[in-house]
Amino acid sequence: MSKTLVLGLGNPLRGDDGIGAAVVSWLSQRPLPPDVVALDGGTPGLELVLTLADYPRVLVVDAADLKRAPGQWTRLTREQVRPAGGQLSLHQAGLAEALALGDELGTLPAELTVYGVQPEQLNWAPGLSPAAQAAVPVVGQAVLEELWPKS
């Protein structure tokens, strides 16, 4: 069984919400460690808890309202992703809610990291904005560096 899941979340038919799928696609064209699975997870809502429970280590890539310029991103720990007042994720029952449920159920991976990318557009049209498209290789490289740590 694989030990690490790289999970891209979002809907590629909604503009920059497809950033997770785009990063997973970028990663799939590069060598990954043998114990890593890269998966386009779509928009699973609370079902995400079931996917996360199968792995001890998960790296999530998702569009997130970070209150930053479009295409800017940040790396967050699971403790930093909380449903407080508003949602961090852009989905109805989003990432923060799924993590809160997984935390209550005791099913979260021991190690969970979220790469959140600020979207520019979330309309009903496929394709990333130029800012989000430019972020794909940058975020992808950051994920690769976490998967292949330098010794």
Provide an overview of this structure.
- With 151 residues, the chain is an alpha/beta fold.
- Mean pLDDT is 88; it is low at 86-91.
- It has one domain (4-147): HybD-like (Rossmann fold, 3-Layer(aba) Sandwich), CATH 3.40.50.1450.
- The longest helix has 18 residues, at 130-147.
- It has a five-stranded mixed β-sheet, with helices on one face.
- The two termini are 25 Å apart.
- Helix 1 crosses helix 4 (130-147).
- The chain has helices at 19-27, 48-52, 95-105, 130-147; strands at 4-9, 36-42, 57-63, 73-77, 111-117.
Which features does this protein show?
151 residues, alpha/beta, 5-stranded mixed β-sheet, 4 helices, 5 strands, 21% strand, globular
- The dominant shape is globular
Percent helix, as a range, is 25-40%
Which CATH class applies here?
Alpha Beta
CATH architecture: 3-Layer(aba) Sandwich
- The CATH homology group name: HybD-like
Which class best fits the helix and strand makeup? alpha/beta
> What's the number of domains?
1
Placed side by side, the strands forming the largest sheet appear as 2-1-3-5-4
Distance between the termini: 25 Å
Please give the radius of gyration in angstroms. 14 Å
Tell me the strand percentage band: 15-25%
H/E topology pattern: EHEHEEHEH
Identify low-pLDDT runs.
86-91
How many strands appear in the DSSP assignment? Answer: 5
| Mean pLDDT value | 88
**CATH domain fold name:** Rossmann fold
Q: Strand count, sense and closure of the main sheet? A: 5 strands, mixed
Number of helices: 4
